[in-house]
């Protein structure tokens, strides 16, 4: 049974700019004097819970992280500039919302980090709550720096709008330094696990895993490899023998038989959702518009905003057991066909629950899994391969994934061949989990991958994409409100 971290809405508007449309144009009434808040342990917990709230944005954040790519596209139903690259400018609602949302999360984290240390309460709990807030602040800044490059660092409670006058963008290095420090601090105080009523909170292993991913993104191979091996050697996690167990709500936070025997947990960190309490729309966003299965209102129906390309199908080797849930072509006897996007139809099945009653797609209970053990294995293999080529440990990590998938084990590869094998393995293993666009960006091949795609569904994006689309535009409100001290990304 999952438990949702309860959010105190009254905290969203205290001391911070989280209720504003942008971070530079607040009315002074949005800034309140801290005075006696938080004054108790209960207040401190509520403030920390509020810092998690941005994670529930769900669909748009996930969409921005993996659409488009070589394996995903958005259908004709809604040609969003974020993935079609026509009309993507500084007034774009998706780009503006993504920027604003992360800063809303950051502001709530700053409230905890600045004020909770002074609360008279249990010291271990107090340190843990600040650690959770630092983990979350790192998460929000990591999202921003990957998609916008350097951004303004706001690492404390703002006392008023005058403090933002003349603010500038910090460098990419400076943003990453803050992220690394926050995650290092968090890992030193967060627990290994939580009791059932606190599932979904950041753990030490989540902090180490995210820090490893940050090092990987910065091509700091040795540091990344060390952190991933620490997780692997901890004995806390393993691969489920059945890949599909990762994607059904009834299986969340449970141990199941592993590929090497015994009961294991594959989940390291996920965001909690519950039907009729806090659902999400990702099922709807990844669903088919095929009228035979109920259009937008049935188990597999939706808006085809996040769909697998036909090229993605060719990435799976014969007998790959991941294919059945990663690329669904038929529901019962009905071959999926789109009435809006000619030739489209297949969907990913990772967010679809055929046993759910009632069968609504806009209120999904599936948790969003942002760090699975499988991802750690693949990141460890990537880091060590870049360091030393395909060592025995690289083969062990990759082949454990392939063994679970039921496909042949790798051997005899060069460093370059292993690099390509790992990249393809990440596509098959982690599809629709929020990584592919970010992977292509960190590999420096995002634009060329879209431009050179052979997918019929990426023809228009391929002709429209330009080099500056590696980054999103900074919201025009931010640039204007700063009188130009915040510079726009080139090309916009």
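^ Assign residues to that structure.
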């Amino acid at each position: 049974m999952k438990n949702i971290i309860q959010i105190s809405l009254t905290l969203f508007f205290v001391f911070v700019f989280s209720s504003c449309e942008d971070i530079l144009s607040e009315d002074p009434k949005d800034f309140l004097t801290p005075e006696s808040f938080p004054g108790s342990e209960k207040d401190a917990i509520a403030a920390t819970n509020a810092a998690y709230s941005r994670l529930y944005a769900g669909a748009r954040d996930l969409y921005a992280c993996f659409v488009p790519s070589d394996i995903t596209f958005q259908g004709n139903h809604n040609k969003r500039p974020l993935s079609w690259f026509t009309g993507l400018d500084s007034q774009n609602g998706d780009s503006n919302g993504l920027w604003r949302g992360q800063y809303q999360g950051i502001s709530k984290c700053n409230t905890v980090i600045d004020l909770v240390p002074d609360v008279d309460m249990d010291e271990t709990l107090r340190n843990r709550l600040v650690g959770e807030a630092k983990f979350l602040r790192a998460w929000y800044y990591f999202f921003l720096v990957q998609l916008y490059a350097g951004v303004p660092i706001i690492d404390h409670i703002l006392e008023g709008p005058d403090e933002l006058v003349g603010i500038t963008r910090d460098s990419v290095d400076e943003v990453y330094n803050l992220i690394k420090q926050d995650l290092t601090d968090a890992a030193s105080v967060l627990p290994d696990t939580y009791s059932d009523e606190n599932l979904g909170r950041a753990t030490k292993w989540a902090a180490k895993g995210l820090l490893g991913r940050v090092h990987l993104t910065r091509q700091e191979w040795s540091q990344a490899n060390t952190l991933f091996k620490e997780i692997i050697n901890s004995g806390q996690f393993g691969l489920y023998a059945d890949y599909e167990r990762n994607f059904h709500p009834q299986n969340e936070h449970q141990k199941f038989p592993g590929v090497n025997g015994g009961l294991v947990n594959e989940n390291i960190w996920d965001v909690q959702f519950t039907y009729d309490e806090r659902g999400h729309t990702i099922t709807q966003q990844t669903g088919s518009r095929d009228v035979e299965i109920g259009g937008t209102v049935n188990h597999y129906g939706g808006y085809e905003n996040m769909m697998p390309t036909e090229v993605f199908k060719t990435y799976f080797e014969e007998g790959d057991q991941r294919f059945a849930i990663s690329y669904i072509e038929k529901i019962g006897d009905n071959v999926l066909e789109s009435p809006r996007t000619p030739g489209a139809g297949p969907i990913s099945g990772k967010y679809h629950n055929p046993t759910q009653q009632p069968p609504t797609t806009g209120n999904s209970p599936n948790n969003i899994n942002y760090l699975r053990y499988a991802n750690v294995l693949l990141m460890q293999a990537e880091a060590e391969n870049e360091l030393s080529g395909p060592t025995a440990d690289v083969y062990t990590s990759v082949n454990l994934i392939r063994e679970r998938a039921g496909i042949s084990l790798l051997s005899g590869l060069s460093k370059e061949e292993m690099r390509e094998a790992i990249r393809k393995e990440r596509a098959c293993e982690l599809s629709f989990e929020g990584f592919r666009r970010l992977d292509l960006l960190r590999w420096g091949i995002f634009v060329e991958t879209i431009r050179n795609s052979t997918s019929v569904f990426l023809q228009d994006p391929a002709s429209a994409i330009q080099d500056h689309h590696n980054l999103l535009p900074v919201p025009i409100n931010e640039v204007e409100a700063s009188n130009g001290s915040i510079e726009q990304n080139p090309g916009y």
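The chain has 18 helices and eight strands.
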